[in-house]
Amino acid sequence: MSKFNKLAIGFGLSVALLTSGCATQNIQAYQNTTPTLDMHKFFSGQIEGWGMFQGRDGEVKKRFYVDIDATHEGDDVIILDEKFSWADGSKSQRIWRLTEKSNGRWIGTADDVVGEATGDVVGNTLHWDYVLNLPVEDKTYKVNFDDWMYLINDDVMLNRSVMTKFGVELGSVTLSMHRKNSSSKLRDSNQGANQN
Prior knowledge:
The longest helix has 17 residues, at 3-19. Helices cover 11% and strands 56% of the residues. The chain has a ten-stranded antiparallel beta barrel. It has helices spanning 3-19, 39-42; strands spanning 45-55, 60-73, 77-86, 91-100, 105-109, 113-122, 125-136, 139-153, 156-165, 168-179. The chain is built from two helices and ten strands; from the N terminus they run ααββββββββββ. The protein has a single domain, classed as Beta Barrel (Lipocalin). InterPro entries: DUF3833. It comes from Psychrobacter pocilloporae. This is DUF3833 domain-containing protein.
């Protein structure tokens, strides 16, 4: 086999690895969904959440509770102070700084995020795309997050994130977030999601 053919095969395998598992939704599909997500309204005050991390085989590897303090800096910036309590008794914290741009675009930064996260809001949906420095035992890995958040009613948001490395799925995170002292209820039919 020639060097050219070996190079072509190697390149093809690399492309296959990079593209496998990378298929993602089109956020424009949520254009007409309700209730419309207002980032400043939902991410304001105290929010709590319950979540889990599953490996790609579906097995639950970790469970956690998160307490979020959401504050604002001016009209364009939201600060999310996230305090995690893991089922094994460990604690962690992440502080997000979210900056609103134009046309539903948001930029996010945090200490363990590589560069900037980019987010888009359409209808009831927020999509984030970012790279996270993920510590595993004594090493740190750069992992891609494809992060989707869906506003269910004024006080409840569901979140699913898929983690990949070189295009290969590593696992997923599912999180249910609730605004504390919320007034709306899931059973209120007028605030259910409208899926067209």
